[in-house]
Inverse folding.
């Protein structure tokens, strides 16, 4: 998984050659100072200085000075800075330029990317959008760009499936719209073409996108913003634009290398009590060699002669990731190009773990005539990795690592006879054996390509065509060698998955001005075809130890699948603007999908009113806008949801195939012919305010959306001939607020301080779940229950009286061998709502400090409220290994606060007999009743984290030019360096969801890998 020494030498030699080659290019250097026209402000730091028609650029220093290399003395420089009007300055042979920038009273020219890749003035929009630019993404140096978005966009939540490198990610906007059928992830669109981000091979498809190549990410959260995508836009849209070259620009080379070091956050465990059992009224030590024990209910380690604490975390090491990126860009009058190659090689936090990804991106544009431009975008990535299982299964590495007693020495793995050393009986192997004998290898190749054609038919009429293809090939191997306890005979599993997505969009756009009115109208069509196929093989019984393939098993099961899904759509948009003050936009889209018999129409209306245009004095409020929108979007059922599906016949003592013949029968799922889309409707209101000449900006959005016709699998009566079926029976409502506040509190000649604060709150309520409104499991311990927040934890609870006090058992044996007397009781009346999973609110606070060439960035992320089901705690409390069991009573006796009593099954009433004064055994409580009570394992999920700490230095442009470089940047990066969880949380990280990370429950982890904190150093040179 690591680059070898010879490869590194070759890469180094290549980089040196590139540096030497570009060092020979002759340049003209221009210097100068940029100052403000406002009296007293003086020089302006951070002004972008760009050579027009090229990618060459720099920024002014804290004293307002700049130095930049230009292709020739007749070039034109463009000066840009927030709150000031753009200024173009022709050089005319001059080598010194001093510029005075005029303040702009409104940020009218800001352009954002909206649905279908349409670039629109932000002031014209009647709905909220959010953008993250390249610098914020690439600065974090994450394996995938999804992690870099954390805390940057209000209304967006991000979870990961694991801390193992290359793991999947889950992004949800505004709480999601689907109760149980979809995974509530948004639609991803890369360079105008939808992109499959599923967690195939336990690694998210988002990881195939190289963060170094991303130019911009635009997020469409509301229904009005995403309505042009129709039936795919119920959960919002994430638009990703990759970098490109510029016409009439000199070649530019960017070379970067990043070294990242990962350290684990140790999961809290008790380290005081030894291996053993509570026997005959006392904690009894077991050495795990002559006498086995699975638990740590022995005496204190300090009280046992010869007993010693062994640190299980010694199994982990410092993970290392090396990332090399080389990119080229430039262009002439007729063509542009951008080519990027990145290799990321990770050596994991445990031996054997690793991840390797190579990405190639090539984007071009050709201007064949003044009216015709053809662009292409191609991405290819290949990745592979090796992981370990995370679950409560006996084959899980983290299972035995966390549960093992602290006094058992895991070394060596084998005894003198070559047998596995065990500390307990049963079916679990020690974690070092599991590490040696098991694994999960995966690989994926992806090619994504698109062609964009733009033709100017008339000055006011433009034709655009975008066609793209995405091919993905993925495979997974899982194995466990023979010879252990968990898998005595071993197994080998292999799965392969192939998919191809084709898409084509053509549209005409008319844009013209009529007096005070500006009119933009577009219309077009869209065709989508998704196809897939795959196979799986499960082999039982490894024949030759250590050899894992389809031929080295004693028996096997195998299967295959294939499918196709198609969509055809017509869409249109009309926007009318009046005096750059009032804008109204209407969109409409009609979809025909292959999984349904009916077609569907989606529309949206949005209105933007820039009231600051009516103000004469803009010194306090420089820009003000009110906006309102309404939209409808949808979510269709999967392919073949309404088809009759066949399954191979079986049962009644007949084994098929029979005499070489197979037989098939319809399966027991009802093929509902009346199934229809899920529909989401949303109203949104907001305001955008800029104060003090853009020194302070505020954006507030309020939304209210409701989703109907929820697709839910419902149990059916046997008399129907089916056991269940997909039916439109559900509804859910979300209300929320999103706030973004940014500004520059301090700006002096040498120093500036920028802040950005985001805060969002979403409240989802389940409206209906069919005729009986029965609770529905949505995965990962989450449930949907009518009238309750979405989603909730729902499970067994302790019995309480009508005052909410614990009822402690007054029945059973009362001698010193008591087992249940004085202990809490399982409530026999059924499961109850334990609390909501969604947080009360989430927020992020980002600070950027700049002093001369130095930059310091800090980002704090916060989540208040919400609950999680800690299944680690469920098991570890039985073993006596939970952190909160550290202060256990010396005599193993505990008196619970509550009332003595029991449940009378005859009267179905709780019977109490006063305050409890009876003791019960502490260990038996955890090994008894609480193992069947979910309430015991519910923990708070709030946190505050230092998500990012970035310290960088940009070499002054004049010094960089001396070294024949346009720029040199050195960065020190820290991720998750500090964190504070709510009291009562003992897991690895409340943001982790072990199962698969993309289902809607998202409140469950079980023997997950520890979370990581990372330290990185990155060097970027631009030539």
């Amino acid at each position: 998984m690591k680059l070898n020494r010879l490869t590194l030498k070759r890469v180094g030699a290549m980089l040196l050659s590139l540096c030497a080659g570009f060092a020979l290019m002759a340049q003209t250097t221009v210097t100068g100072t940029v100052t403000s026209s406002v009296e007293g402000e003086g020089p302006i730091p951070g002004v972008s200085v760009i050579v027009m028609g090229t990618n060459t650029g720099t920024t002014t220093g804290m004293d307002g000075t700049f130095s930049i290399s230009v292709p020739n003395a007749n070039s034109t420089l463009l000066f840009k800075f927030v709150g000031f009007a753009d200024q173009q300055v022709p050089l005319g042979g001059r080598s010194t330029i001093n510029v005075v920038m005029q303040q702009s009273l409104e940020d009218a020219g800001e352009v954002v990317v909206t649905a279908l890749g349409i670039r629109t003035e932000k002031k014209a929009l009647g709905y909220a959008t959010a953008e993250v630019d390249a610098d914020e993404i690439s600065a974090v140096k994450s394996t995938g760009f999804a992690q870099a978005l954390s805390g940057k966009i209000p209304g967006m939540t991000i979870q990961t499936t694991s801390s193992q490198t290359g793991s999947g990610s889950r992004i949800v906007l505004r709480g999601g719209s689907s109760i149980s059928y979809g995974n509530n992830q948004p639609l991803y669109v890369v360079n105008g073409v939808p992109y499959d981000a599923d967690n195939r091979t336990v690694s998210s498809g988002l990881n195939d996108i190289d963060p170094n190549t991303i130019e911009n990410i635009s997020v469409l959260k509301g229904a009005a913003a995403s309505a042009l995508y129709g039936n795919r836009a119920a959960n919002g849209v994430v638009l990703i634009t990759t970098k490109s070259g510029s016409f009439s620009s000199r070649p530019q080379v960017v070379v970067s290398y990043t070294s990242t070091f990962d350290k684990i956050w140790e999961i809290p465990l008790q380290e005081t009590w030894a291996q053993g059992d509570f026997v005959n009224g006392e904690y009894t030590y077991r050495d795990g060699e002559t006498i086995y024990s699975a638990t740590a209910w022995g005496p204190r380690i300090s009280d046992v002669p010869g007993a010693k604490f062994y640190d299980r975390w010694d199994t982990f090491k410092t993970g290392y990731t090396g990332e090399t990126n080389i990119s080229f860009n430039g262009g002439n009058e007729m063509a542009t190009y951008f080519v990027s190659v990145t290799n990321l090689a990770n050596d994991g936090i445990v031996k054997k773990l690793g991840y390797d990804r190579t990405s190639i991106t090539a984007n071009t544009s050709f201007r064949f005539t003044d009216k015709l431009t053809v662009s292409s975008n191609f991405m290819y990535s290949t990745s592979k990795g090796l992981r370990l299982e995370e679950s409560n299964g006996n084959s899980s590495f983290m299972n035995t690592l966390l549960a093992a007693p602290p006094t058992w020495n895991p070394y060596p793995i084998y005894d003198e006879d070559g047998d596995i050393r065990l500390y307990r009986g049963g079916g679990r192997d020690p974690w070092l054996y599991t590490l040696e004998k098991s694994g999960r290898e995966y690989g994926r190749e992806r090619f994504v390509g698109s062609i964009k054609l733009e033709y100017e038919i008339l000055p006011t009429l433009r034709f655009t065509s975008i066609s793209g293809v995405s091919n993905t090939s993925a495979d997974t191997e899982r194995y466990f060698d023979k010879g252990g306890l968990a898998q005595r005979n071993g197994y080998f599993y292999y799965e392969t998955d192939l998919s191809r997505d084709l898409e084509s969009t053509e549209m005409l756009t008319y844009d013209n001005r009529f007096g005070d009115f500006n009119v933009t109208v577009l219309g077009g069509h869209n065709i989508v075809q998704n196809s897939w196929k795959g196979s799986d093989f499960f082999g039982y019984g490894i024949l030759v130890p250590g050899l894992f393939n389809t031929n080295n098993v004693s028996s096997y099961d195998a299967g295959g699948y294939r499918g196709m899904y198609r969509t055809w759509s017509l869409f249109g948009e009309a926007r009318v603007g009046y005096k750059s003050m009032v804008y109204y936009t209407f969109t409409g889209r009609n979809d025909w999908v292959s999984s349904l018999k009916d077609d569907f129409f989606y529309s949206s209306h949005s209105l933007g009113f820039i009231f600051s245009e009516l103000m004469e004095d803009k010194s306090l409020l420089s820009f003000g806008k009110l906006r309102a929108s309404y939209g409808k979007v949808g979510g269709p059922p999967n392919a073949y949801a309404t088809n009759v599906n066949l399954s191979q016949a079986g049962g009644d003592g007949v084994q098929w195939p029979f005499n070489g013949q197979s037989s098939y029968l319809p399966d027991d799922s009802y093929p509902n012919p009346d199934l229809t889309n899920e529909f989401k409707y949303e109203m949104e209101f907001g305001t955008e305010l800029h104060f003090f000449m853009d020194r302070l900006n505020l954006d507030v959005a309020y939304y209210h959306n409701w989703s109907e016709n929820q697709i839910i699998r419902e149990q059916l009566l046997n008399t129907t001939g089916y056991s269940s079926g997909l039916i439109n029976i559900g509804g859910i409502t979300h209300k929320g607020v999103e706030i973004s506040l940014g500004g520059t509190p301090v700006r002096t000649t040498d120093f500036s301080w920028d802040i950005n604060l985001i805060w969002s709150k979403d409240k989802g309520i389940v409206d209906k779940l069919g005729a009986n409104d029965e609770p529905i499991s949505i995965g990962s311990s989450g449930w949907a229950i009518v009238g309750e927040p979405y989603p909730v934890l729902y499970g067994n609870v302790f019995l309480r009286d009508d005052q909410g006090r614990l009822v402690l058992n007054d029945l059973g044996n009362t001698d010193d061998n008591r087992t249940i007397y004085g202990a809490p009781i399982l409530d026999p009346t059924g499961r109850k709502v334990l609390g909501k999973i969604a947080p009360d609110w989430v927020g992020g606070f980002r600070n950027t400090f700049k002093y001369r060439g130095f930059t310091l960035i800090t980002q704090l992320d916060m989540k208040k409220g919400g609950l999680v089901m800690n299944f680690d705690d469920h098991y570890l409390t039985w073993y006596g290994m939970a952190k909160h069991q550290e202060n256990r009573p010396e005599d193993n006796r505990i008196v619970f606060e509550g009332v003595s009593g029991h449940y009378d099954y005859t009267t179905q009433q709780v019977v109490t007999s006063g305050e409890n004064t009876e003791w019960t055994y502490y260990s038996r409580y955890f090994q008894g009743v609480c193992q069947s009570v979910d309430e015991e394992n519910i923990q708070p999920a709030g946190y505050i984290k230092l998500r990012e700490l970035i310290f960088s230095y940009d070499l002054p442009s004049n010094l960089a030019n001396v070294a024949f470089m346009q720029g040199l940047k050195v960065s020190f990066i820290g991720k998750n360096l500090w964190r504070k969880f709510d009291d009562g949380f003992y897991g690895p990280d409340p943001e982790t969801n072990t199962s698969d990370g993309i289902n809607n429950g998202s409140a469950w982890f079980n023997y997950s890998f520890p979370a990581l904190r990372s330290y990185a150093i990155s060097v970027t040179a631009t030539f």
